[in-house]
Amino acid sequence: MQQLALPAYDSANPVHAALSDAGARAADLAASQAGAAQAELAEIERELTRLVAGLFSIPAKDLRAMLRIALPAGPLGLHD
Questions:
Q1: Are 40 and 29 within 8 A, CB to CB?
Q2: Within a domain: residue 9?
Q3: Residue 41, domain extent
Q4: Do 31 and 38 meet the contact criterion of CB atoms below 8 Å apart?
Q5: For the segment 6-44, what is each residue's pLDDT rounded down to a tens digit?
Q6: Among 22, 32, 75, 79, who pairs with 37 as Cys (CB 3.0-4.6 Å)?
Q7: The pTM of the whole model exceeds 0.85
Q8: Chain CA centroid to CA 57, Å
Q9: Number of domain units in the chain
Q10: What pLDDT is attached to residue 72?
Q11: Which residues contact 48 (CB under 8 A, 6 or more apart)?
Q12: Is residue 52 situated within a structural domain?
């Protein structure tokens, strides 16, 4: 993948602001090793997935289908 069409950040866009907020919360929690933080981090990751799907107008049924795909081992199932 050479290019990914990402819209420029717009602080007035509520989806962009929510993504920024959730990303900051996820980064803070990821730095924590507490078990409770890990559970909250999992919820934020689901929130991020929903927000990104909305940003790219991915219908819920398509998102559910994408999330059912089994990925290989690794953080995102991707290879360098």
A1: yes
A2: no
A3: 14-68
A4: no
A5: 888 998 999 899 999 999 998 888 887 677 777 788 888
A6: 32
A7: no
A8: 14
A9: 1
A10: 54
A11: 19, 22, 23, 26
A12: yes
